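Teaching soon. Got one?

===
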Amino acid sequence: MHDDTAPQVDMWTDGACKGNPGVGGWGTWMRFGDHERELCGGEVATTNNRMELTAVIEGLRALTKPCAVTLHVDSTYVLNGATKWISGWKRNGWRTGDKKPVKNVDLWQALDAQLLRHTVVWVWVKGHAGDPGNERADALANQGVNKAISA
């Protein structure tokens, strides 16, 4: 449920990795009314899951005030982590149900901080299936890979 008084933002995010682990990139495309913003970046040694998480975190961080965000992701890892698993991880001291440390805990904690700032409605989209926002985020993630390679 969105806060009707907060600015309404539509956001699409994606991560890419050439090799897993390997050189990775992340991309975020967002719309607010008539305004659009593109963000991307990359890392030389990372994983696809880290790039998927980073895209969401950086998109939410870029919002200068609390917003009502409709967040489109093609990563079930990010979607399930944010909507099903994170509360249990926090309750268990950032450990999984079988008491192992949560993978990518630094990013999950960063995402958790952003989720406290914004009201997020999560929408899963099938990757590479023609969703225009997802295709744009994917192109940005690949730009991020290229930035990491040329850095």
Remarks:
- Residues 8-150 form a domain with the Nucleotidyltransferase; domain 5 fold (CATH 3.30.420.10).
- The helical segments are 48-61, 76-91, 105-117, 132-150.
- The chain has one domain: 8-150.
- The longest strand covers residues 8-19.
